[in-house]
Design goal:
With 331 residues, this protein is α+β, with helices and mostly antiparallel strands. The chain has a domain at 2-135 and 255-312: BirA Bifunctional Protein, domain 2, CATH 3.30.930.10. The chain is 40% helix and 19% strand. It has 12 helices and 12 strands. The protein has helices spanning 2-14, 28-34, 60-70, 114-130, 144-151, 156-167, 171-179, 185-193, 209-219, 223-226, 283-292, 296-318, and strands at residues 18-19, 25-27, 44-46, 52-55, 78-87, 99-108, 136-141, 198-199, 229-232, 245-250, 258-262, 276-282. It has a 9-stranded mixed beta sheet. It has a 3-stranded antiparallel beta sheet with strand order 2-4-3. It is globular, with a radius of gyration of 23 Å. The two termini are 32 Å apart.
Length: 331
């Protein structure tokens, strides 16, 4: 996986993203401020003062804290990247671990749609650089379905259940919860049909202002990246701090998606309101997808290892021999 991360790092560097490091342990109150769901990881401990510490479950909230504390007067936008471990409570299965190596970016201070388009361009460049071929980008809007629920005056208790089913992509569950509300045929058809729309521009008809925001993003993409995009109106992310465009990477060799989105309200919770967008790739899942595409992952690793070995040999052959009082560094 070292070859994968090195190729991704080169893409980050080429686009002007600087690597940032944050502690693996965060105060629980920091994560609660960012998103209560992010503050409920499986791994907690106490410091000597009795404060609750948690292993970070993602990098976005810690970076938001750093921006507020250290970049309060910095000129925008800020471009951060990272290759770091995160920790989550999961049921172990193919491609899922409690500890995961993530590679990602956070673009702070760049509003939509331009900032979103840049994030998608960097994402696709990174995936192309590691050799992934069959992927597509699902693009949705985190505010779209909640706005539909508001428009039909869905009670809060029912909203929670419906959004849970939507988050797990259980459309049968969505239909069950919506049907139980007895809203009438038109409202029921909208609330059950819209989140199942997936495709081109035609699926955006009649879904309100979110459609204009999604069109604006795609209009700013290069043709190669735009060709990868599929509108997915039922797309949602597991953390509630996402506010606008959200996206996921789909690949038939992997199945499990990877992605990110906009979180324009998150930075304000730490003291400096700024628009922002980011994404993260699970490096192991990415490697699984590469292996699934005709064993390309193994080919990539072998090629990178051979190139590194050849470079070391060249460096050794070109180094001047130690003479007289000089001593080789390993002696």
């Amino acid at each position: 996986m070292h070859a994968v991360t090195e190729r991704v790092r080169r893409v980050f560097d080429a686009h002007g993203y600087g690597e940032i490091h944050t502690p693996a342990l965060e105060y629980e109150q920091v994560l609660v401020r960012g998103d209560p769901a992010a503050a409920d990881p499986a791994y907690k401990l106490f410091d000597e003062q009795g404060n609750v510490l948690v292993l970070r479950s993602d990098m976005t909230i810690p970076i938001a804290r750093v921006v507020s504390a250290r970049y309060a007067h910095a000129e925008m936008p800020l471009r951060f990247c990272y290759v770091a471990h995160a920790y989550r409570s999961v049921r172990p299965q193919r491609g899922q671990d409690r500890e995961m190596l993530q590679a990602g970016v956070e673009l702070v201070g760049a509003p939509a749609p331009e900032g979103t388009a840049e994030a998608l361009e960097v994402l696709c460049t990174a995936l192309d650089a590691v050799g992934l071929e069959g992927y597509r980008i699902g693009l949705g809007d985190a505010s779209l379905y909640p706005a539909l629920l508001d428009a039909h005056a869905v009670p809060e208790a029912a909203r929670v259940k419906i959004l849970h089913e939507l988050g797990t992509r259980d459309f049968v569950g969505v239909e069950r919860e919506v049907g139980g509300l007895r809203l009438g045929p038109e409202a029921t058809a909208t609330l059950t049909g819209v989140p199942q729309r997936r495709g081109g521009m035609e699926v955006l008809e009649g879904v309100g202002p979110a459609a204009d925001r999604l069109r604006a993003v795609v209009e700013r993409l290069s043709p190669a990246v735009a060709a990868r995009v599929i509108f997915d109106l039922g797309l949602s992310r597991p953390l509630a701090y996402y506010t606008g465009a959200v996206f996921e990477v789909y690949d038939a060799a992997l199945g499990a998606p990877l992605g990110g989105g906009r979180y324009d309200d998150l930075l304000g919770r730490f003291g400096r309101a700024l628009p922002a967008v980011g994404w993260a790739l699970n490096v192991e899942r990415l490697h699984i997808a590469l292996v699934g595409e005709h064993g390309r992952g193994e080919t990539l690793l072998a090629a990178e290892a051979a190139a590194a070995a050849a470079q070391r040999l060249r460096a050794g052959s070109e180094a001047p021999a130690a003479t007289g009082g000089d001593q080789a560094p390993w002696a």
